[in-house]
Specification:
By secondary structure, the protein is mainly alpha-helical. It contains seven helices and no strands.
Length: about 160
Amino acid sequence: MTAGDVAVTLVRLALGVTMAAHGLNHWRGGGKIAGTAGWFESLGLRNGTLQAWLSVITEIGAGLLLIAGFLTSAACAAVISVTLVAGLLAHRHNGFFVFKDGYEYVLVLAVVALALAMLGPGRLSLDHAFDITVNGWAAGAAALGLGALSTAGLLAVFWRPQPTS
């Protein structure tokens, strides 16, 4: 086992735990599903309760897949999509820095997910155990493309922002 295998495993675990915890917080934290739904609706998304559950399932699911190192590039695409939606709807207008509720944090998560898709999950993963090899430029392009396409689809179907006066 190489230092690279350990490093990519640490990155995969950190991203996976972060995403799963974020999804759990949308579900069980603060305002629970109702609060998350209301927040999504305030961002201009229709069907807030559906959006809240989709977010919870995507974040927890992607997080668990990353922790296990299973279907890693697909999990990375999910992270890219979730963070792209968050960046565009909730953080973009606040500028870069996270302390001003900017897009800094979601940008870092998305770039880490893209890099992980390109590097692959490492030897300490179910992908490696099952001989699932998806990495390199094509895996990065697929994760980025699928994440962007998912984001575009979600926004096309559900985003209806209120006009500003």
